[in-house]
Amino acid sequence: MANEMNMNVGRIGNVSANSSTAGSRWVGASEHCSPCEKRRKEAQMRSSMNPGPGTQNPRLNTGHSTLNTSMSRSGFVKTMGVGMAALAGVATAKGSVAHATPRTNPDPGHVIISPDGMLITVRSTGANDTVNIRWALSNVASGGTVFLPDAQYYCNQIYVENFRGVFKGAGKDRTVLDVYGTIRPVDEFGSWFVFNGGNILLCDMSFNPTPSNSAQKWIQQMWGASITAITTIRIKGASANSNISRVNFKSNPGTLKWYGEIPVDKNILAHIWLSNDYTEFAFLPMTGNHQITSCSFEEGFAGILAWNLSDGNLKIGGSPGEGNVFNRTWFGALTDSLSNCVCEMSYNTILDVYSSGLQPRSLFWYNQPGEYPQLSTYTVTHNNVRALAGAAAIESYDYARWDTGTAAVNLAISQNTVTTSGEEGGLYNLYGSFATVWIDAFVERAIVSNNVIRGVKCYAGIYVGPGCSEAMLLGNNLNGLISDSSNPDLIAPIWLNEASNCTVVGGNNIANVLDMGTNNILTGVNNMHVNIGQNVKDAMNRRRELMANERMQR
């Protein structure tokens, strides 16, 4: 799929905003590509359900939905699902929307179709480009390309079913998309662009929703406050494949709060979200293969969320030239409840993360209440992660094993360079420091090897928590983990806290391990004896409370 799509990208490599393909025609208000008539009508139906705000100034906030602020919490849970209410304290409401009859045909002079229907070029109008972009994505031939030349674009929500082709700009900083008016969400997570099924290659553009016109106000049912946030790109459906490459994702100031109390203060909930529909207390599975490379994620709550993927592959990064860059996000890449999947997170750079840089985990139900994911393999390697004080560079959990005794996380963390900086601001700095590499909640047989771990203001370089067993910690370099007055919270470079049957083999590291578990084997290291202060216990308990709350709310 990726090779086929890359060929399509090459086909339009020299297309510019002023190009005029021989034999092509501009599509006016009453002129359409005849081979695509059926899909055009479907696009008209979708457009009528999700109208744009007309031809007003792109900087005006118009067309707000009517919000049902009296909805009960139980109704909210059943209708919207509280997975993201717990995660971000937000939800859409069951309001009615009343708008003028939308324009569903493309603008004359701004949409050009190649004779074979394989290339549709959309030129910026300087105002509302929603209909033109939506029409092109819905009507391009299978395997074709929708191309946005070098320009600034404004659009409202875009929903496309079974798109099989390339959505391409002129370059990361040359084709820039901003929100037009106010997002009227097409799903319960306030998604701006939604691709339902298909084979999607998205590349060479920037998404930069500005603060003044970035999102719909949602009702924060659980805490009674209004916030503003959107998800930029969502891939969903029972089956979908995606390849997202060379895209800039930016966030701007907003009022997002995690759990309704922890200020994120950005307008992005997730830049990329891979997940199918939410039913009562569980996401439905989505099969397929997904790759995200050479992208940049600037602030926001999460760079990448991937939930309940099934029987497929997820690659975030992948080679020295294809890593992604995350800057000051709360989560870099978070995967949850993948089932029978292979997930690789490699060669990424994550800077000044507030909560967790890379977090492969199994935290929630899969498909339906009481059902859990099958074992998936997670490889976290060759990443460079810098966490703020009170955050984790890499962390993992396996609550499926906690609940059922059967592991869902097969984890290997190797050859990463991870650092905890002295800069305040990490999530758990509110309650104390944290560990740089954190493995907790019954993860079994994790391998942590040949990592370089350094920094200040952390409890431990590597932490293996209660219920974890048979972890192997081999040859990790912790010499850069400062243990003096500049790092008074350091308990131990390696801390085995109620973990069992683990093996620790010293390498070029500080030879100190705090073993508070059972049947652990320590080779080439010293076993420390430390009294854990009450402030550390309080911080650990608070963190577990947050995780437990997230599980309960979902």
Total strand count, please? 39
Structural class: mainly beta
- The end-to-end span amounts to 34 Å
Judging from the principal axes of the Cα atoms, what is the shape? elongated
* Overall pLDDT score: 76
Proportion of beta-strand residues: 35-45%
What's the story with the biggest beta sheet? 35 strands, mixed
- Determine Rg (CA atoms, Å): 24 Å
Which spans have pLDDT < 50 for at least 5 consecutive residues? 1-101, 212-226
Helix content: 10-25%
Total DSSP helices: 7
Concise structural overview:
By secondary structure, this protein is mainly beta.
Structure, explained:
The chain is built from 7 helices and 39 strands. α5 (130-139) links the parallel β3 and β4. α2 (37-49) runs antiparallel to α5. Mean pLDDT is 76; it is low at 1-101 and 212-226.
Search tags:
39% strand, 554 residues, elongated, mainly beta, disordered N terminus, single chain, 35-stranded mixed β-sheet
Secondary structure elements and pairings:
Blueprint: H1 2-11, E1 25-26, H2 37-49, H3 73-80, H4 83-88, E2 111-113, E3 119-122, H5 130-139, E4 144-148, E5 151-155, E6 158-169, E7 175-179, E8 191-207, E9 217-220, E10 225-228, E11 230-250, E12 257-258, E13 262-263, E14 268-274, E15 286-293, E16 296-298, E17 302-307, E18 309-317, E19 325-327, E20 331-336, E21 342-346, E22 349-353, E23 356-362, E24 376-381, E25 384-387, E26 392-398, H6 399-404, E27 409-414, E28 417-420, E29 435-439, E30 447-449, E31 452-455, E32 460-464, E33 472-474, E34 477-481, E35 492-496, E36 503-505, E37 512-515, E38 521-523, E39 526-528, H7 534-553
Parallel strand pairs: 3-4, 4-6, 5-7, 6-8, 7-8, 8-11, 11-14, 11-15, 11-16, 14-17, 15-18, 16-19, 17-20, 18-21, 19-22, 20-23, 21-24, 22-25, 23-26, 24-27, 25-28, 26-29, 27-30, 28-31, 29-32, 30-33, 31-34, 32-35, 33-36, 35-37, 36-38, 37-39
Antiparallel strand pairs: 1-2, 2-3, 9-10, 12-13
Helix pairs in contact: 2-5
